[in-house]
């Protein structure tokens, strides 16, 4: 069941790291050479980005512009655009042509997380804007604010086919209010209430605080014990018990318990969700955990956030059509404090990446965060669960 506020979608799945070469990190500054971007995109996945000596990332607040290459064929680190700032036309998207959640991150827009490079009209410049964050029945000023393919009519996001809306008919979840989903059991299909924890499901029908399991049951987020079947990411496994999803089964994390140099060719490899990172000498490696620093607090604050979404009938972050990162989104209007608490509590123990900007830097003060690399299928799909 994937599709942010995400924002916040591109799900970054939980990775297991077994390395015998330590990973160092040198972040490029503005105007410096770069080859790639790594950004948090999924609130429910701990990101452990792979690296090698040929990759160069930009420091926080910048992105790798791969459109205007330098004389050596490298990208150039450029400052991320804020709301209303000009952005490269090569990154433009048209909200009238489809869902834009896959473009609402810096490497695809040149803008801060959650925004896209948008041209309001043929006579206006391309600027960083929040788009597609209002669901059916929510307030709007322009079509681009409504989730595709809704239109802004009378300052409210509505279906193009008013008769269909009046009859409560639909073709897709986005054509229903946020608290409902499009059920295909009847013909024509109709909008029905989302399924609560314990109900049967087949995709994205569950309420915002649950996920549809492989067995077709809406399971509460972070509730599955060791041994239960889980999705490829780990929304269902109980992170408060140091459990993660490995090969489709919830398993206890087994960290490396030695103090050996993980760069040594004879070293067996780091433990679960660990990365071999270089010490100051650049050669000696140490296994570092990439799991949440405070998993119990992370679970609590995440569930409180999702409960807030349910209470206020905000869009689920699992279907990829809703951008909860936007300041005027339902999620931010009613649950901004919960979002900030979640991001503050879900920091990783160690992050070996250059871009550690808070996913929702436009909502919370960066000083309130610990370093993290999370994005969502939750914000995004919040993420851009994408």
Automatic annotation (TrEMBL):
Span of the signal peptide: 1-19
Tagged with keyword Transmembrane helix: yes
Keyword annotations from UniProtKB, A to Z: Membrane, Signal, Transmembrane, Transmembrane helix
Domain of life, per lineage: Eukaryota
Transmembrane segments: 367-385
InterPro entries in the record: Diff-Dev_Assoc_Protein
Name of the protein this chain belongs to: Paramecium surface antigen repeat-containing protein
């Amino acid at each position: 069941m994937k599709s942010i506020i995400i924002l916040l979608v591109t799900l970054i799945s939980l990775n297991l790291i077994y390395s015998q070469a330590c990973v160092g990190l040198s972040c490029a500054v503005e105007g410096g050479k770069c080859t790639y971007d790594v950004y948090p995109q999924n609130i429910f996945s701990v990101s452990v980005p792979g690296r090698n000596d040929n990759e160069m990332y930009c420091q926080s607040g910048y992105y790798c512009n791969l459109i205007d290459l330098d004389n050596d064929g490298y990208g150039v680190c450029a400052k991320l655009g804020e709301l209303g700032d000009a952005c490269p036309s090569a990154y433009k998207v048209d909200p009238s042509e489809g869902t834009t959640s896959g473009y609402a991150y810096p490497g695809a827009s040149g803008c801060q997380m959650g925004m896209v490079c948008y041209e309001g009209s043929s006579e206006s410049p391309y600027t960083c804007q929040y788009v597609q964050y209002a669901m059916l029945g929510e307030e709007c000023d322009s079509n681009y604010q409504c989730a595709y393919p809704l239109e802004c009519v009378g300052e409210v996001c509505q279906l193009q086919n008013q008769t269909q809306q009046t009859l409560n008919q639909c073709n897709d979840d986005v054509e229903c209010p946020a608290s409902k989903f499009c059920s295909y059991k009847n013909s024509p299909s109709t909008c029905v209430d989302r399924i609560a924890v314990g109900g049967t499901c087949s995709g994205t029908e569950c309420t915002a605080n649950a996920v549809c399991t492989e067995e077709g049951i809406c399971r509460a987020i972070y509730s599955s014990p060791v041994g239960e079947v889980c999705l490829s990411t780990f929304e269902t496994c109980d992170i408060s018990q140091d459990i993660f999803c490995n090969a489709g089964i919830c398993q206890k994390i087994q960290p490396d318990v030695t103090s050996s140099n993980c760069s040594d060719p004879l070293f067996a490899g780091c433990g679960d969700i660990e990365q071999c990172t270089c010490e100051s000498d650049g050669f000696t490696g140490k296994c570092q955990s990439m799991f949440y620093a405070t998993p119990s607090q992370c679970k609590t604050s995440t569930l409180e956030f999702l409960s807030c979404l349910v209470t206020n009938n905000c869009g689920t972050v699992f279907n990829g059509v809703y951008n909860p990162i936007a300041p005027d989104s339902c999620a931010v209007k009613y649950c901004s404090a919960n979002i900030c608490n979640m991001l503050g509590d879900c920091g990783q123990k160690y992050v070996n990446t250059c871009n550690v900007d808070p996913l929702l830097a436009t909502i919370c003060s960066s000083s309130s965060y610990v370093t993290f690399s999370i994005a969502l299928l939750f914000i995004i799909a919040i993420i851009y669960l994408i």
